[in-house]
Amino acid sequence: MENEKNVAHTMGSFVPKIMQWLKTMTTNEYIYQVKQDGWKPFHYKLWQRNYYEH
């Protein structure tokens, strides 16, 4: 039981890091595509503040 709690805690702290990485990489790629290939620019933010909303 204790081991399961440790795994859940580790995974729980890992998910926000994955989401931060995903948002950073996709935002940077989108900005690159706006500059290089004329993609439509986004206004203010590409991502909503919290990934778990809605």
Task: Note the main attributes of this structure.
mainly alpha, 1 helix, elongated, 54 residues
Q: Given the structure, what is the number of helices?
A: 1
The topology string of helices and strands comes to: H
Helix content: 55-70%
Low-confidence stretches: none
Q: Could you tell me the number of beta strands?
A: 0
Report the biggest beta sheet as strand number plus sense, adding barrel if it closes: none
- The whole-number mean of residue pLDDT values reads 83
Shape: elongated
Gyration radius, in Å = 16 Å
Give me the oligomer status: single chain
Task: Explain what this protein looks like in three dimensions.
By secondary structure, the protein is mostly helical. The chain has a domain at 1-25. The protein is 67% helix and 0% strand. The protein has one helix at residues 2-37. The longest helix has 36 residues, at 2-37. 0% of the residues are buried.
Layout of helices and strands:
Blueprint: H1 2-37
Task: Give a short synopsis of this structure.
The chain has one helix spanning 2-37.
